[in-house]
From TrEMBL:
One of its GO terms (molecular function) is pyridoxal phosphate binding. Keywords: Decarboxylase, Lyase, Pyridoxal phosphate. The modification N6-(pyridoxal phosphate)lysine is found at residue 260. InterPro entries: Group_II_Decarboxylase, PyrdxlP-dep_de-COase, PyrdxlP-dep_Trfase, PyrdxlP-dep_Trfase_major, PyrdxlP-dep_Trfase_small, Pyridoxal-P_BS. Coiled coil: none annotated. PROSITE patterns: DDC_GAD_HDC_YDC. Its cofactor is pyridoxal 5'-phosphate. GO terms for biological process: carboxylic acid metabolic process. Belongs to the group II decarboxylase family. It comes from the Eukaryota. SUPFAM superfamilies: PLP-dependent transferases. NCBIfam families: PRK02769.1. This is Histidine decarboxylase.
Amino acid sequence: MENNISNVTDKKYSLDLVEPFDEECHVDRQRRLTKILSEFQEHLAERSNHFLGYHLNQDCSCLTDLSPFLRFHINNVGDPFKESNLGLHSKKFEVAVLDWFAELWEIENDEYWGYVTNGGTEANLQALLLGRDLLPDGILYASKESHYSIFKAARICRMECQIIGTLITGEIDCMDLREKLFANKDKPAIINLNIGTTFKGGVDNLDLVLKTLEECDFSRDRFYIHCDAALYGLISPFLENGPKFSFKKPIGSVSVSAHKLLGSSMPCGVFMTRKRHIADFSRNIEYIATVDNTISGSRNGHAPIFIWYSLNMKLGRMGLQKEVNKCLMNARYLRDGLKNAGISVMLNESNILVVFERPLDLEFIYHWQLSVDGKMAHVIVMPHVTVKMLDDFLSDLTRKREIWYGSGEVRRLCLAEDIGLSNCACSVHGNGNSSRN
């Protein structure tokens, strides 16, 4: 099913840069620009009230306290643990953030290396570059539901890639992984592990993957595991009986996006690996008087301050625990509302990604900013998503579905192959749709 959402554009905010009018004074120009920006701010506020389909937390209001720092260019060039001649940096904040995540992911401060990234794609590229440097002839194994940046990184690194099938939940199929590992036993394995897939939130079973590697006779020095925990890296540690991952197990690296559950006004995240893995990747650069070992040269120095401030304002682990619990509860609320309305829906255990049948109206998809994949759409119940937003969405969706399917001329979509027989509410499987949680 073709996705034409990109054809829907808002011409009102297509702006061209113009030279000052000859007769226009500075005050008039400032007034005109202020009006444009004010209108755009109103536009963003309206769109935030209907933002349901992507992994972004729009609750960033506390970060306005940091606006005075915008008058400075803050550049964290090079290794966050090394000084440089560029004195306008926030590396002390960056290291404080990294230490917090190191404790969360159970690795000692003297055993890890990491940095604040510009987002998940950069972190995944950094991870695969490290994996390739450690295992030059290694084969990348990634499930078909891995983030698109994994396959882009594989192309950039010119790595051989084996795509692994997935279960209905979205998690990696270890039977398929086993077959492909056996077929390539002569080469090391670089494995991308999804701690929450992009569309279904499927969490790959780390213990089962490790068992599979052992059964295929891959010793510890012949595999490298990267955990792409873009969203779930700040959810999994706070689940009472949820899937756990940490550096206490033989993983090579972890990445998480800070603009997702935590919330940030700009894309950013954290990449972390074992210190011994970064040694051969590091180079002393005289020009910046420090060590270069990150994908980006100049790095955003505001992002570490944003993350540090958010963690403090949201009361660290205790505050994040409350955020996670609220999101889980609201996700179940949405799932039950969709199910009661006779709509095909799936929610993985301890998850906040609610997958349901794709709406037929492109304007509806655009209005609620839904992410779609084939016959599926999903809502990601982030901290900014309120019960009122979910009620408004459910009301709008059920009203529109009466229009789409009311005449009986359009058949309702069957999602049995996508989300399972028990979750499909089409005319064939409509008596199922039982809850997974």
